[in-house]
Each structure stands twice: as C-alpha cells, then as structure tokens.
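User: I want to check something. If I give you two sequences, will you return the structure for each one separately, not as a complex?

Assistant: Yes, each is folded on its own. Here is the first sequence with its structure:
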Amino acid sequence: MSAGMEASGRGEISVSTEKIAFLGGFSARNFGDLLAGGSLGFQSPSAYQERAADAKLLVRTPANGLLTASYQHLVQYDVPIYYRVAQDNFVRYSFVPQARTLGYLRWERQSENKWMQTLRLTASLNRSVEGLETQRRNAATFNRGKDVVNSWGAVAEVHSQPASFWQIQSGVEYYLDRVSSQLASVNLQTGAATARRGNFADGSEMRNLAVFTSHVLDFQRIQLTGGLRYNAVTLQVRDEAINNPRIQPAALVGNASATYKINSDHHLIVSFNTGFRSPNLDDVSKLGNVEANVYEVPNANLSPERTATLEGGYKFRSRRFSGSVLAYRTNLTNQIVRIKSSFNGDTLIQNTRVYTKINSSESLLYGGEAEAEVALWSSVVAFGNLTYVYGQDQSRNEPMRRIPPLFGRLGVRAAYKGFSGRIEYLFAGKQDRLAAGDRSDVRISSRLVDGATPAWNVMNLYAGYTYRAIGVNIGVQNLLNNAYRIHGSGVDGVGRSLWVALRGQF
C-alpha cells in the first residue's frame, strides 16, 4: 500500500485425500503510520507489526464421522493507541504485545435417525494476552501491565428433522473464563518496579452454562421460527478489598419470527426476541483507565441488562431487482452506565475523573436498514444500502452514547472474462445528537465542528484480473482525498492511497 501504510504477505498449503485434508498458512503484515485525508498528514504513532499462523486438519472417521482439529495464533507487536498520544495526556500508550490463540477439536457424525441427523461435539480453548505500557506526559513513572484470559469451552449440539417441514437445533454449552492480571509502576530514573493491582482482579473467574433449542416450521406460505435459551452465570471476583463478591445471574430468553411468502420472490417478515447480558469481569472488577478522561473503579452490585426487540421487514427478488427493507425497535432496561464517583475519597486519580458503573438507565433504540441491487446489464450491477439508528437514554433524557449517524453506500460493479471492477461511494451524515459522555470523549470531541461530528463522503475504485491461477487486484481509496472521521473511532480515515495485491496458486 502506498505511503508505506502496509506491506503484507501470506503463504499457505493444502493437501487432501478421500479421508484426510489439511490446510495451513502463515502471514506477516507490517503497517506504517496511517496517512489521513486532506491536509491532516500522517497520524503518528499508528504503525505496528503483525504475525499470524493457522492450521486445520480434517479426518473422516468410521460411521460417517468427521474429526476437525484447528489452531489459530495471531500476535501484534507494540500497537499504539493513536488518540491517546495525539489527543490525550500520554507520551506512550501501546499494547506490547496483543495476542490471541484459538484451538478447538470437533467431532461430528451424520446418521439416518431423524431425531439425531447430526451430532456435533466441540472442545475449545481461546487465550488472549494483552500487555499494556503507558506513560503520561511529565510523569516520573510509567506503567507496565499484562492481562491474560483463558476461556475453556465445551459445546454439544444436535440437529434433528422429525418431519419434512420441521427442523430442530438444540444443545448445551459451557464456558469458563479465568483472568490473570498484573501491573507494575516503574520509576524512570531508578528503574525500580512497584507491584500494583492489575486492571482486573487477578484470579477471577466467570462460568457460563446455557441450554438452547431452536425450531423452524416451514409450510407452503408461512415459515415460523422459535427458540428458547436458558443462561446461568457464576461470576467470582477475587479481591478482598471489595469482599470477594460472587454473583449468579440467570435468565430465560427467547425469539419468535414469522415469514409470509407472498410468492417465491416476495416475503414479509416479523420477529420478536428478548436478550440478556450478564455483568462480566470487565464490569465488576475493572480498575484503571478505560478510555480518555475515565478512571473506572469496580462495582460488585451490578445486575444483568435486558432487551426486547420487535422487527419487521420486506424482502424481494426478481430477475433484475433484489433488496430488503427492515425496521426495528429495541427497549433496553436495567442498562449498565458510568456515573461520577470516588476512590478512597478521591474524585481524581492522576488528574483523571473517577467513574463507576451502575444499573440506572432505560433506553430506546429504533432504526431501519435498506439495501437493493439492480442488474443494469448481464455483467453490470448497481447496488446500495442505507442504515439509520436513533438512540435515546430515557432515564437521563439525553441521546445514548456512541450512536452512529445515517450512513450508506452506493456503487456499481462489473465482471467480464476474468476482469472485475467496482466503484463505490460511501457517505455518512453529521452526528449532532451527542450524550454528555460523547462530548467528553476525545475520540469524538477532538473533531467536533459546530457541536457535531461532520458529515463525510469517500469514493473508492477497485479493479482485478484473474488468469488461470494468477490474480491481480488494485484499489484506490479515498479518490478525492477528503478528510473524514468515522464517528467515535478516535482516528481519521485514510487519505488518497493505492494498494496492489498479487495472488498465485500452484
């Protein structure tokens, strides 16, 4: 990619026989400082490096069985948080490193039994490692922390089809998350390190047991879908300073939907579903800086958030036209929000305001989405989509935080004898419905114009050619070199730039 913003490569190999298949690969990516549009220039620091490897093995076993073993590992080195350095009071704020490892083993078996057509058993381990180094301007110390989360999982699923019109997906899953968290404050002159409480309560655990069933009844004109899910959560925080709290929330949630087939090309859809989000270890044990101007202290007395959503829509398809329109309304109750607080009698920690989380708000969200495609010629298609969401915190009588503005995309794509091309126009309206928390968030406030995140538009061009096993793709991003920022992102969008990708196979 031009301006030194990216240089990436990947190699992979696959081998297969009738009973065994293997796919493995390795990638290396070097990202330079991001060049913003207009006259904003390079955003430094934003450069980092990434390495990743993955492998998957499939083995057919007796009695129509299939065994899958998969491994993925990704590590990013010295990843700076640009807005913290450029717009907040830090000279260094970087993840050193940021890594994720996922491994799972899955066995599945097909049978003629209509109540157990497919049985699938999965065991997994997901491990994340996040080191963090921070130093405030003019500070005599810097902080070095490390958070490690190991998540063990076990899932059993059964797919059934007791009748031609009736399909069932049922199962049980269990996850155990365990966190290790350390933090040290290092004196810049002497190099002496002083151990402190980590971002989370070290050794804390979260257990999640769920049982679920989902049913689809497909009749000639009407398709009905319904499901239930029971979740039981146990969260154990190991921190004597807050009396080692233990909470055990549980909930039964469900969904129901109906599709009316006016004919094969026109469908009407309506659905209702409920949701439940338990407080997690981040909510209950987090202690420290979580975003600019926010120092969070834990609250062990949180309870779950709940949602109820009603949706309705229309989908259509013909020889030349296709698309959909969807509208929804969500009521969010018992919402977990931050309020100003104190820690050991102090309202400021290192000149940062202290906050804590409580269940205090009820909010309303409603919005809509629309998308459409039209075939202009046999190989040329015009497309577009549009999304709008409105969020209001009814308890505080102010907008909800981080609500995006109206945004969408228009474009034309074409393909002919190995050639392909696409031109697209992306746009977003201004966002002037801001909560108090938005106005104090430097990711938003640093780019406000007349009290709003400005509207923006970007044009991109893409082209490609494939000949046998060789493919070349070229893209020009932000052709007009407009300066813009996606609402709440904390970083400005990429300026005019060129990227080239070459793919070969043998």
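And separately, the second sequence with its own structure:
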Amino acid sequence: MSGGLRAVGRLLAAGWLLARYDALVPREFTPLLPAPLRGPAGLLRLVSGPQARRGRPGERLARAFEQLGPAAIKLGQLLSTRADIFGEEVAQDLAHLKDQLAPFDHAVAVAEVERSLGKPLSALFADFGPVVGAASLAQAHAATLLDGRKVAVKILRPGVERRVALDIAAMELAASMAEGLGPTVRRLEPRAFVAAVTRSMALELDLRLEAAAASEMGEIMARDSFMSAPAVVWDGVAKRVLTLEWAPGTPLSSPEALALPGLDRPLLATHVIRAFLAQALDHGLFHADLHEGNLFVEAPVRLTAVDFGIVGRIGTNERRFLAEILWGFIQRDYRRIAEVHFDAGYVPRSQNVDDFAQALRAVGEPIFGRRARDVSMGRLLGQLFEITGLFDMHLRPELVLLQKTMVTVEGVARRIDPDSDIWDAARPVVERWIRRELAPPARLQRLAERGVRLLERAAERIEAEPIPPAPAAPGGASWTAVGFAIGLAAGALVLALMRR
C-alpha cells in the first residue's frame, strides 16, 4: 500500500475512533451547526457506546487521543493551549493528557541497549534494573554504572518510529483538507501547526538529540540557581538509547513532595517561574514540558528537571515580544504592546495601531485591582489570541510551545503555592532583560554590529561583482573606497568601544 493510501486509512481509522468517543462532532456542539448538518452529526453518535460518551467533550477527546497514540497525544497537548478556540473547559481537559502505557519486555529492552551501544550490558552497567516509567514513545530503567553512579536509561519502544510516521502523514492530510474549509481555519495555520508537532516528534525519536538538549539546558540552568539538569552519560547514548545521571529528590507529582520537611514552598514556586523565564528570555531556549512529573524537588528549594525530549527555541524578535508584552502589561502601556506586535510582524501593517492598543486595553484593564493570584499570565496571553481575528493575525506556531509551557509552569507554581504572585516572580527577570537588551548602550551596540555586517556584505558584493570605478578622490583613491573604509572603521570603532 502506498504512503498516501496508508495516510488515508489512518485518517479514516482516527475519524472512526473519534466518532466512537463522540468527540468528532460532540453532541454538545450539535445545536451550533447549520441545520443541514445536524442530522448527519446525530448519525455519527449511533456508533458510540454509553461508556465512551461519558464525560465532557474535552475528556472524551483526551481519551480518544490517548487511544490514538503518541502523535495524537502531542497534538492534544498543543491544542490545550488554545482556550480561545476550544473554550477553557476543553483546554483544561486536554491539558491533563497522559501517555502512560504498559512497559515492553525487559529482555527486549536489554537487547536494544546492547544493539544500540554496540557492547554487552556488563561493559557499561554494574546493574540494570526494572522499568521506572513507561510512556507511548519510550520507557526508562534504573541502572548503576560500573563506577557506582546511579543512572536512568531511556529506550525507545520497538517500531514506534513507523507508527509515528503514519500518524503524522494522516495529520498532514487532515491539515491540508482543513485549510480548504475557509479563511477562518486558514488563519489558524493548520499545516504549520502540524509541522510544529512533526518537528517536536522528530526530536523525540532521536535520543542523541535529546542528549544534546539535556547537555545544553544543563549549561544554561547552571548560570542561574533556579533549576538544574542531570549530567549526560555520553557512553550510554545512541539514537534509541539515552543515559542520564539519576535525578536527586522526590518527583513533584508525588503527594509527599510538598510535605518534605524544610521545604520553602513560596520560594520554590518563584524559582519555577523564574527558571522558565530566564531560559526563554536570556537564552532563547527553554524546557517545554515542565509538568510536575518532570520536576524533582529537595528541601529547601532545589529543583531538577528531566525529560528533554521537547525544548522550545525562540528568536530575538520572539524574546523581545515576550518581554515587552509582559512588561507592557505590568506598566499598563498598551500603546507600546501594540507597537511591539506591529514591529515583530504579528499584526499586518494594514491594521491601525491605535485600534489594536484599544483592544489590548480591553484585555489588560480587567486584571488590575484584582489579587495577583487571580490573574493568570498564561490566560492573559491566551486572551491576546482572542482578538487576533479582528486584526487578521495568523497563528504563530513558534509561539504555541511558548504559551503551552507558560500555562504549564504557571499551573505548577500555583499548585506548589496557591498564593504565588506570578507577576512579582516574573518582574526581576523581565526587568533584567529590559535593562540589558533595550537600554541605549545595548541598542547602540546592536546598531554597530548591524552596520559592520552590512559593510561586510557590501564588501563581498563588490568583490564578487566589480563595478565601474567611481570618480577619483584627491590623491588617486576612489570616493567609494574612501567611504567604505571610513564606514568600516567607524563601525569597528563603535563596536570596540561598546565591548570594552
């Protein structure tokens, strides 16, 4: 069977399963459909059983996604950030998606480790223990190295790559079909959204890339005291196997974690927020799956993150976008927030900046005068998307992972300390970024660097495509050469002064 036919078959099977769970066109949404579509929607429910129909629409959709497997679970986790489209209740239900499965056989795991690492188990491990966690993509084993260090060994499930490839092909087909439904759906960029899922899954299916992400994140986290990462054991890394030092402490998902003697819960909640913002703003790289199961805690405030299969990367514009939006709302400077959207290209230039600032005011003003713990930073960013249709803004897939992580981190912080002041925790990190990146010296340095780059490109162009000589300057040199030399020297001088 060709790849296209397999994708069609997979898509039809997914549709059937969604219909079985009354999640394809949920009964609660039938009254919203045009009259001609209500009858066919009702027929779909004939294939669902009473057990499958129980619960809210989001709960049924989450159960269907769990049945469909890893790609659908990943899609559901990203969709959970779009409360503006699906509603707060559905988004919360999808946010609880889990992918815990029964483990595969221990002997299969041992064989995979030996095949992937090209050596017998005894050459690396003094002990290779039982499964400590099994998900849809991989499972983890506790083990001990020959030097006595305790480690966690992650192994991909047999055949998981083929299943994910089929799921992604089906999602790509569904996204292409969805874009034909009209401009409203096209504005949500379904193909770009699926591409974001695809990139994330590709990284998770090569554990060498996760090892690199864990190593890079460990270096970044070491620059602040908010969070740390286990060291990578590179001798135990291959495409389908990853070995990390054992994370110290208690999983934050365990009931006893928040009852640890000497735990400083308010400061711990603050560290969770500041760790994420410092990663995103200062480095443009952040752990994008910071739920309680991936965080280990020791008293008084030590946090260790694990599972680096999903990391987010944001560019300079996106970092500025995040920092200035948060700072603008803290300062109630709606005009500045609007200008940032226009400068970053998130709002088309055909729109009016004052009208957009007015819409932002409608989002921001209701939060003032309320207790900080009642104001959700993640929900605030979500509300920004609610006004996107009025200003012809398209979904930015690179920001979806950022918003998803912010919502998750905020939820973790508030579960650690219900009185956590998210805005107060964010302020020092955002202020630090604003002072460093937007102060006049920083802007002057960036201007000088940009000037040097432009001059270097101009020099390369001149060398590649000789141009007729310009009129000679006194002394025989051309004005072009003189001007170029002066500009290059000036740019280099400014840059040197700024780096002193």
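Because they were folded independently, the notes below concern the second chain alone. The two ends are 65 Å apart (CA to CA). Strands lie at 125-134, 138-145, 150-156, 241-245, 250-251, 285-287, 295-298, 302-305, 311-313.
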